[in-house]
Amino acid sequence: MLHLTFWGTSDAQGVPRLLCNCSVCKKAQQKNLRNRCSLLVKSSKSNLLIDVSPDFRTQFLKYADGKVPCNVLITHAHNDHIGGLGDLADLCFWQNVNTGITSPPEMIGILRQRYPYLIKRRGIHFIASHISKLDDWNISFHKVNHGFNGYAYGIKFERKGFVWSYIPDIFRATEDQLNPFLLSDLIIIGTSFWKEEADIKKRSIYDVEEVLTLKEKYQIPRMILTHLSHDIDIPKHEKRLPEGVQFAYDGFELTI
């Protein structure tokens, strides 16, 4: 059994956005008050964190119950997914605990370039790999298109009887890129807008309508939507979601 806690569910700018006067930002509270994306996955024996957002310190104080993650999986090296790495490293150093930072080799290379002072620092160690483990769950990284922003990785968790996937940043994925995730019983996926009107060449994440089309086309049993911008007003928009689809929000918990 796994226990998931969404530490953050916003897009790169957070909600409320800085200096934004839209109705969602001006009244951001409860489900519409969102930190940058991060997900804690906890088993009976261990735990791991997916991505370390710039809001890590606030998230840790609110949700971690004093327990430092044993491993951290990084989906890609954009600031909203790695900006808290320095705070995590300080935490590990001063608490004298050792946490692995796991991601495919080229992502680890980027992290080592951006945080050279952490390479030999006590407390964390970098693990360049496309696979990992959490108890009897097999974990694998799979590259997906991230539109204008290049590419990222989705992460699949698999054991006998259940498969679930976490893909916070994905857009215009090919059939080959989607294939590893299509047998998932649950997909947690990023959808920053309900319907994004920006030029498709400048976009980087699916919108809600596009993901609902994918769910129907591939018969995905359940989807949870995360990486939500200020365009998403959960109390308003959740009424329009079909059965088997829901929005995540900061502090949302789920047992698998």
Automatic annotation (TrEMBL):
Record GO terms (molecular function): hydrolase activity
Cited InterPro entries: Metallo-B-lactamas, RibonucZ/Hydroxyglut_hydro
Pfam families attached to this UniProt entry: Lactamase_B_2 (PF12706)
Domain Metallo-beta-lactamase: 47-227
Gene3D superfamilies assigned: Ribonuclease Z/Hydroxyacylglutathione hydrolase-like
Keyword match Hydrolase: yes
PANTHER family: HYDROLASE C777.06C-RELATED, HYDROLASE C777.06C-RELATED-RELATED
Name under which the protein is recorded: Hydrolase
Organism: Kroppenstedtia guangzhouensis
Organism lineage string: Bacteria, Bacillati, Bacillota, Bacilli, Bacillales
